[in-house]
Amino acid sequence: MAVSKLWPVTTRLERVIDYVANPEKTAASVYTEEQYQALRDVIAYAKDEEKTEREFFVEGINCNPDTAREQFVSVKEKFIKKDGIQAYHGYLSFKEQDITPETAQKIGMEFANEVWGKRFQVLVTTHLNTKHLHCHFVINSVSFVDGKRLWGEEKAWFKFRLVADRICEKYGLYYNPKPNRSKQSSYYYKKEKAGMPTRYTMAREAIDKAISHSTNLAAMKYALKEMGCELQVSESRKYWTIILKGYDKPIRLKNLGEEYTNEAIKRRLIENQGIKIEPFQRETFRPRQYRLPTRGNKLRKKGGLYGLYLYYCYRLGYLPKYKKQNTARLHYLLKEDLLKLDRISMEARLLGRENISTDKELFSYKVSIENQIETLNDERTHLRKTLRRNLNDDELSKVREQISTITDRIRTLRKEVTLCDGIAERSKVIKHNLEQVHADEEKFKGKERNRYEQRR
After folding, report:
1. Which comes out higher in pLDDT, residue 133 or 142?
2. d(CA 120, CA 151)
3. Of 175, 288, 344, 432, which has the fewest CB atoms closer than 10 Å, so is most exposed?
4. In whole angstroms, what is the distance from residue 25 CA to residue 32 CA?
5. In the predicted model, is pLDDT for residue 289 greater than 60?
6. What value does the mean pLDDT take over residues 342-365?
7. What would the mean pLDDT of 387-402 be, rounded to a whole number?
8. CA 320 to chain centre
9. Are 218 and 208 in contact (CB under 8 A)?
10. The pTM is what?
11. Is 42 exposed, middle or buried (0-12, 13-18, 19+ CB in 10 A)?
């Protein structure tokens, strides 16, 4: 299937119509196959009016492309529906790189006619500015037939897949009969690829730990509940889900991987029945006659912004480096910041490098950085003015090198300013989170202490 998407347009109509009908993107020319693959060559060749005849792949359904906006507006005025969503903008991109613009435009027209052509005005264009040709559609949000808005299945783009598949099959183009629409977002995928914890990795760790102490679904559900997770499983549910503590949105277990589907989880629980396993138990508070100071105690006593960040990194499991993180038992308020470890660690290194402990020192450092940026900007402006003079090639090269060096330095200093702003904002959140975590821990220890006294 061709890659596709549809989204509403709430801004001025002429802006999106001008973009879709942009001659630089819809201009066709006579070019070789090698030129077709090269983006820059195609655009340059298509713009050369002295060497090529230009043809524009812009067509309208129930409207004239040259006056599409006026016709869209006249329909809205006729039915008194000028407010709200003005139009819908969609595209259809093809995987093949050898498809001709004429074929792409023909497919786009056939697709738009079948989906919207009976009731709506549609502008259809084919853009040639990338190596994959793609059709753009601008659909009036109000029907010229009955004045009703585009609604329901008419804008449910994922339901148009069957239409697109059928047309692609007709023209011998690629389509996927069984697409996987349960993939993780690229954000979580990139985080996991970089080794960073995400909602999905935390869910997998919690499920794996629960399964390792369970032989049936009831025991697994109990173990997850003790870890603060809510598991929704039953034979009547098509998709089993899990909600992590501190989150509201459930995760379908099948989205976690092949080992977390309904059948896979049942199989793993049955396999546990043949071995001896220990039932899941929460970590209990055990009073001691003496306590040795831990790294966390030492970091907590350090104080200041730097000490606050170090202790927070310790609670997140980022410190010490030699100790493996156990995100399954991490407090739910801290789990969200696991996704921001890179930024938090950069801010902590800045505080340690510059020996910053108070808000006043942080503000002073930020002001000094801003003054350096201002001085460098003045110096760079002076060098740019120097370029206007009659200089030889060696002098020009030297000045440009100086400008490049200053630009890199300014970029680095601006990142420092951004880190300072992040510290000023994040430090308050960190303090609040740690206070809540300590309060919850003391509450839990109090309950465990009472149980311990009763058992004595």
Report:
1. 142
2. 12
3. 288
4. 18
5. no
6. 90
7. 86
8. 30
9. no
10. 0.42
11. buried
Domain boundaries, the chain: 3-170, 194-272, 295-455
Sort residue 147 into left (φ over 0), alpha (ψ -120 to 50) or beta.
Answer: left
Q: What is the mean pLDDT of residues 96-100?
A: 78
How far apart are the C-alpha atoms of 229 and 238, rounded to whole Å? 20
pLDDT recorded at residue 87:
85
In the CATH scheme, what is the code of domain 3-170? 3.30.930
Position 444: which residue type? Answer: F
Band (35; pLDDT cuts 50, 70, 90): very low
Half-sphere exposure of 251 (CA within 13 A, CB side): 27
Q: What is the pLDDT of residue 414?
A: 94
Half-sphere exposure of 341 (CA within 13 A, CB side): 19
Centroid of chain to Cα 430? 24
Asked whether 344 and 337 are in contact (CB, 8 A), the reply is yes
Q: Which residue has the higher pLDDT, 454 or 85?
A: 85
Written as six digits, the tokens of 232 are: 């929704």
> Residues 417-429: pLDDT tens digits?
999 999 998 888 8
Whole-number pLDDT of residue 122? 92
| Residue 15, amino acid | R
Distance, in Å, from the CA atom of 225 to the CA atom of 219, rounded to the nearest integer, reads 10
Token pair recorded at residue 295:
């790294």
Here the tokens at position 157 are: 């783009």
Give me the percent of the chain exceeding a pLDDT of 70. Answer: 74
Of 312 and 264, more confident? 264
What distance in Å separates the CA atoms of residue 301 and residue 311, rounded to the nearest whole number? Answer: 9
